[in-house]
Amino acid sequence: MNPSVIALLHGPDKPGIVAKVSTWIHQRGGNVLHADQHLDRQENVFFQRVEWEVSATHEPRQESDDFVSFVQNELDMQVRIGLSNDRPKVAIMVSKADHCFHDLVLRVRAGEWMADFAGVISNHDHLQSVSESYGLPFYHLPVTQETKQDVEDKQVAWLQDQGVQLVILARYMQILSPSFLQNVGCPVINIHHSFLPSFAGARPYHQAYQRGVKLIGATAHYVTEDLDEGPIIEQDVARVSHRHGPKDLIEKGRDLEKLVLSTAVRRHLQNRVLDYQNKTVVFD
Fold first, then answer.
1. Residue 36 has pLDDT above 90, yes or no
2. Residue 177's CB: how many other CB atoms inside 10 A?
3. Where are any strands of DSSP class E within the chain?
4. What is the C-alpha to C-alpha distance for residues 156 and 186, in angstroms, rounded to an integer?
5. How far is Cα 21 from Cα 105, in angstroms, rounded to an integer?
6. What are the helix and strand counts (H, E) for the chain?
7. Which residue ranges make up each domain of the chain?
């Protein structure tokens, strides 16, 4: 049975886009499984996610290439394509905290997501033994101010050599340089332990405690050169009170971080996220 084709397209809105897309699929013997669209009226940008079964007489990858040509040439829109049986290679970057790391690995081992882990990169060796117990290669590269550029060059080289298509920062407590982000060649998703844009930067739970907040949150976002300001994929919050100190906030926040990060990764792997102008449209 052929895998289905998933397309994410966006561009200037104009009449007839939905009809033209569905007609193109129908005329080639395809069957639409899911279709969802959104119009940003402020920017006049149209977004669509469409998934369809390919006719038995067509090869899915050739169908994908033909659809890209159709969208670019006839609709003048941008498009990204995936197949339902794609298994992207994913790398995890960690420091010392392990809660998000375990959650991600166990979800893949349980078959929740179509993905394969290439391995783990860390600036500490705390999670080496547990990574290896999961059968994951562990690449330990300590980072100092003097060695940061050299370490990042080695990290990028390893990621490219492994063919990694997504990098997940599972509480990796280092700021990635513009050079890393420009050269890594794939999206990077980060979990930030606060409800951005509040309490960006370091020690956000301590910042929240000092402000006496009644809600704490977590935010998963694509990483850009602007610290903690990349397009947001998912957020969630938990209620707290004056009785909760920084330690309590950290403990409650860990559950949020796992859920928010896993939701963002799932949406990305299922080709449900379109980012533009530092925002996202999430078809879920």
1. yes
2. 13
3. 5-12, 31-40, 45-53, 78-83, 89-94, 116-122, 138-140, 166-169, 188-192, 215-222, 232-239, 273-276, 279-282
4. 10
5. 37
6. 8, 13
7. 5-83, 89-282
- CATH topology for 89-282 is Rossmann fold (3.40.50)
pTM of the model as a whole: 0.91
Q: Which residues are tagged catalytic?
A: 228
Alpha-helical (H) ranges within 191-245 are 204-211
How much is the pLDDT for 245?
73
| pLDDT tens per residue, range 49-83 | 999 999 999 999 999 999 999 999 999 999 999 99
Nearest-angstrom CA–CA distance, 167 and 90: 6
Average confidence (pLDDT) over 89-95: 97
Residue 196 vs residues 168, 257, 261: alpha-carbon distances, Å: 18, 13, 14
Ramachandran angles phi, psi of 139, nearest 5°: -110, 100
- Whether 103 has a pLDDT exceeding 90, the answer reads yes
In degrees rounded to 5, what are phi and psi of residue 14? -160, 160
Options 3.30.70.260, 3.40.50.2300, 3.40.350.10, 3.40.50.40; CATH for 5-83 is 3.30.70.260
CA 212 from chain center: how many Å? 31
Provide the token pair at 40: 């940003």
CB environment 259-283: b (16+ within 10 A), e (fewer): bbbbbbbbbbbbbbbbbeeeebbbb
